């Protein structure tokens, strides 16, 4: 393992973050940047509830840096930053060190002789943050002699150990925290809120103030592509992207051009050239090739192809190319993927194809208008970024909603729902399109996809598969088993409905939704 580099001084920013680590940042963005500096951040430990990876919080520990980062499960955005060991990270607030270093007066060079402990209350109160309101005292567990006092400032809190016998409600907290009965702070938290007492009530549900990419903080909106907050699948090849500040942008498959994508979403993070036979069999083909829209990949005779390339992700191990020629007559050789890692999805650029049917009862939209020589957006892949999955941390998490009616009430199926609920609802929606019950059963068979023949590219991250104990949450009920993690042989299953293909993990979580 790489030896950690000397500590860098990180600026404390209450209600915002420390250094470059900003509240609201995506799990994907934080991990990507941490892994880019292995000398500074040599170890990453990821803890999560293996059976409920997108409904329970995800915790990222940096043991060599004394930091712990907590993310909400559904959106995977940073909600709480904790400093657990002040000796491992140098912190500064307005040019003043958070921890006063001990010096050896006998040494001519006045070097530090011992690692610093946490900051004292006197230093915090007098030199750094000033007066504040009374905090919260937590009595010790039975048999323990030391309680805990949480001192809050707006967006910032410190935890102090206090001898329980010295605590009294009749004595002001400044006197007690200044006495010998109180030791230096043992931890610090940065959050969004006026106090820790107020912030912890909606820590994981309050809308974040800052964007998912910390590099975007403070940049003019007109110079960057707006963040995609949610993807709405509307049927008939229509996908609406709901953005943070800009109006929604609708991708119409077989009609939206690569130029449209770049104008609205910015240039892709990467472009990969690859024709994927595993997915192309589920797309709408030429009208003369179509029968009842294929509900399940298990029915397609081409599934007999057992080439080992089937274990690769849809967009990896491909030739990188930055240009697509939309005027080329033979578009088959120009098929490529536009990878938007920071948006959470990929778009297949290919020749136009027949659009998938609208949801039953929905009128859908007009047929596409295109030239056979024109390259268009043919499919969109919405990635779930599920901890423990084969494709974890290649994209940030994309949240989606399937809306079965554009007018009036209809189903709203979300990316946080277990697949059995999504499948049951879609089966009822499409039931009238089958000729009999036997065809319905045949069309709903799943196809197994083995992703375990090669090592995950993110295997250097320690996946613990459990949630740690915390003051505000009990220990989660996690199942640390290969099945729950999607491990073992790393098999997933593919289930198809008209215009949609779901990749499902063994914990019934949707890892990827392909819309075509």
TrEMBL record:
Ranges where the record places region Disordered: 276-332, 468-489
Pfam families from the UniProt entry: PHAF1 (PF03676)
Listed InterPro entries: PHAF1, PHAF1/BROMI
Domain of life: Eukaryota
Family, similarity comment: Belongs to the PHAF1 family.
Name of protein: Isoleucyl-tRNA synthetase
């Amino acid at each position: 393992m790489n030896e950690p580099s000397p500590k860098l001084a990180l600026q404390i920013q209450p209600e915002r973050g420390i250094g470059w680590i900003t509240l609201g940042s995506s799990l994907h963005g934080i991990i990507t940047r941490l892994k880019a500096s292995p000398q500074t951040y040599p170890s990453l430990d990821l803890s999560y509830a293996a059976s409920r990876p997108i409904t329970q919080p995800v915790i990222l520990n940096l043991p060599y840096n004394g930091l712990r980062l907590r993310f909400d499960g559904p959106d995977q955005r940073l909600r709480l930053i904790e400093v657990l060991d002040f000796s491992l990270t140098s912190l500064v607030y307005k040019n003043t060190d958070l921890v006063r270093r001990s010096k050896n007066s006998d040494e001519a060079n006045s070097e530090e002789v011992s690692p610093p402990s946490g900051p004292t209350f006197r230093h915090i109160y007098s030199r750094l943050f000033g007066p504040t309101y009374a905090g919260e005292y937590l009595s010790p567990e039975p048999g323990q002699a030391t309680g805990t006092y949480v001192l809050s400032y707006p967006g910032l809190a410190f935890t102090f150990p206090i001898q329980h016998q010295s605590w009294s409600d009749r004595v002001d907290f400044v006197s007690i925290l200044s006495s010998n009965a109180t030791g230096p702070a043992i931890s610090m938290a940065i959050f969004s809120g006026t106090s820790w007492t107020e912030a912890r009530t909606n820590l994981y549900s309050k809308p974040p103030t800052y964007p998912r990419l910390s590099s975007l903080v403070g940049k003019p909106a007109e110079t960057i592509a707006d963040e995609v907050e949610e993807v709405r699948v509307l049927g008939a090849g229509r996908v609406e992207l709901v953005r943070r500040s800009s109006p929604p942008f609708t991708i119409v498959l077989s009609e939206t051009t690569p130029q449209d994508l770049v104008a609205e979403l910015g240039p892709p993070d990467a472009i990969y050239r690859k024709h994927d036979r595993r997915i192309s069999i589920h797309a709408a083909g030429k009208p003369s090739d179509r029968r009842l829209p294929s509900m399940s990949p298990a029915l397609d005779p081409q599934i007999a192809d057992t080439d080992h390339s089937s274990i690769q992700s849809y967009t990896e191990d491909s030739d990188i190319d930055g240009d697509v020629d939309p005027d080329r007559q033979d578009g088959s050789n120009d098929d490529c993927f536009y990878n938007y890692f920071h948006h959470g999805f990929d778009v297949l650029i290919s020749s136009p194809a027949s659009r998938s049917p609208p949801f039953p009862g929905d009128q859908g939209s007009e047929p596409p208008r295109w030239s056979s020589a024109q390259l268009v957006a043919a499919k969109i892949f919405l990635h779930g970024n599920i901890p423990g999955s084969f494709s974890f941390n290649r994209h940030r998490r994309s949240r989606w909603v399937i809306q079965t009616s554009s007018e009036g009430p209809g189903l709203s199926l979300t990316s946080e729902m277990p697949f059995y609920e999504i499948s049951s609802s879609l089966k009822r929606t499409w039931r009238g399109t089958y000729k009999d019950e036997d065809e319905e059963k045949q069309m709903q068979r799943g196809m197994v996809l083995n992703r375990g023949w090669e090592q995950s590219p993110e295997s250097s991250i320690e996946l613990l598969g459990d949630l740690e104990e915390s003051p505000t949450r009990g220990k989660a009920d996690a199942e640390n088993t290969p099945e729950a993690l999607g491990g073992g042989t790393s098999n997933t299953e593919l289930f198809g409905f008209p215009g949609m293909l779901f990749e499902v993990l063994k914990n019934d979580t949707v890892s990827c939704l392909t819309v075509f």
